[in-house]
Amino acid sequence: MSRLLRKPEHEQLSNGVVVVHDHTKEATPLEYVGFKVIDLSPGGTHEEELGKVECCIVALTGRIDVTDGTETFENIGARDSVFEQRPTDSVYVSNDRSFKVEAVTKARVALCYSPSDNQLPTKLIKAADNDVEHRGKDNNKRRVHNILPDYDDSANSLLVVEVFTESGNWSSYPPHKHDEDNLPEESFLEESYYHEMNPPQGFVFQRVYTDDRSLDETMTVENGHVVLVPKGYHPVGVPDGYTSYYLNVMAGPKRKWKFHNDPDHEWIVERD
């Protein structure tokens, strides 16, 4: 099995929480990005003490209450399915704080982490505050919800974005990378992809590869899988009949998204 492809774990806890993914404790190829997905039954609670990491709490589906002990945000979340294709609510919590998530309804929550030592204010990122973009053309079209973009100074390291790609289209395409700390030409950002498909029996293909092919993996990614991208190009192909959703988490030594296209495929961008 690929070291980059992670399948759901579904670890049942005693407080109405199921851990679907936890890529923060076990060894991963990522240094700057940590990621969890949890399912909560109504009334279920999840609490954490953050050390030198910041966290973006994304209400993927359902409604939740979130508190850091000082501020409380009630009944947040904006959809029952990610494929409603509308933005959702999120909460940013800085390092050296704690937080508690409590489910108002059945909910799925993503927890996105990155190292941080500069404490910032806790912030509710409302669905209405997400910038929505439409990128690409032809068979390279996708809809983007910017939760924590690099032009927003609400976080120290984290960049968080949702992407919807329709049937028969390619995403994160033409193949691009951001694995060199060489600004202003390119930034170093690790990345994780949390994938869902509609209908859920669907799949996508994701390739992660470097110029020298020292890393070159092509994965069949199914509903609920996570792909970790420590470096390299990382395009996603969506088969006919299915819609793709993924939540991206990026982080690195500098909070700037500056990518470099694969020169072999640059012509795709330059065509009329």
Low-pLDDT runs of 5+ residues are none
Q: Helical content, roughly?
A: under 10%
Q: Numbering strands along the chain, what is their spatial order in the largest sheet?
A: 1-23-20-25-15-14-13
Task: Give the overall pLDDT as a whole number.
Answer: 96
Order of helices and strands: EEEEEEEEEEEEEEEEEEEEEEEEEEH
Backbone shape: globular
Organism: Halobacillus salinarum
Catalytic activity: 5-deoxy-D-glucuronate = 5-dehydro-2-deoxy-D-gluconate
Keywords: Isomerase
Pfam family, one: KduI
Write structural notes for this entry.
This protein has one helix at residues 267-270; strands at residues 5-6, 11-12, 17-23, 34-40, 45-49, 53-61, 64-67, 72-76, 90-93, 98-103, 107-115, 123-125, 131-135, 142-148, 159-165, 170-171, 176-177, 179-182, 186-188, 190-198, 203-209, 216-222, 226-229, 236-237, 243-251, 260-261. The radius of gyration is 18 Å and the shape is globular. The protein is mainly beta and 272 residues long. The mean pLDDT is 96. It has a seven-stranded antiparallel beta sheet with strand order 1-23-20-25-15-14-13, with no helix packed on it. A seven-stranded antiparallel beta sheet has the order 2-3-4-11-6-9-12, with no helix packed on it. It has a four-stranded antiparallel beta sheet with strand order 5-10-7-8, with no helix packed on it. The protein has one domain (5-270): Jelly Rolls (Sandwich).
